[in-house]
Amino acid sequence: MLGRPRFVGCAIISKTHPSDRSGHEVFAMKQFNYQSAQFLVSAAKLSQCPSDDGAEVAFCGRSNAGKSSAINTLTRQKKLARTSKTPGRTQLINFFELSTQARLVDLPGYGYAKVPISLKHYWQTHLDEYLRSRASLVGLVLLSDIRHPFKPFDRMMLDWARQSKIPLHILLTKADKLSRGAQQTTLLNRRKDLPAEVTAQTFSALSGLGLEMLTTVLDGWLAEGHKKTHP
User: Fold this and answer.
1) Which of 41, 146, 208, 219 suits 179 as a labelling partner, its CA being 20 to 30 A distant?
2) Mean of the pLDDT values across residues 216-221?
3) How many domains does the chain have?
4) Within-domain flag for 172
5) Residues 6+ apart with CB under 8 A from 86
6) Which of 160, 103, 100, 152 lies closest to 129, judged by CA?
7) How do residues 131-156 score in pLDDT, each as one tens digit?
């Protein structure tokens, strides 16, 4: 039985994993038009989120990791997700609709020192509630600056995904800041420190590096979620 593919640079290595009971490779069984993405709603808490049906993939990461920029590059829309040079700008859970049954989600950035402690606790509480309670969540994309080692927030998300058995894919962002050789060395070193079921790749919102690989992962997750909704 084939498991979720492992990404190394631009190569895809299929790996058997006991948690995958689908019986086939999770590739793009259905291709989604990410350029058609439209803003749906912003939610400050779980009760304000859209109806919990269909399938959605959430983007998470520390403040200034490049979540909004990655979503804008993916959808080829410069202003779909709000970006700012000021970390911590994204304070709500933002939903973007691909179809009536498929969504992208931009989660609040976490870890910016200048955000008041009370607001940090608020974000953490509602982020945790969303991750634990959202039935339509089919995958999580964790963004981490390739120039820095994994932070406590990254470790927390790795632990949460493992415990919840939610597929996790890591984007090592801002890869254009490193040479190609340094990109690959960093990617291989990070992979040694990850669970076997977690996939990772290099990514640059500026140059588009890794965009095709990212869409392959998202297509697979969303298609699987779509199949469960429409067997």
Assistant:
1) 219
2) 96
3) 1
4) yes
5) none
6) 160
7) 889 999 999 999 999 999 998 889 98
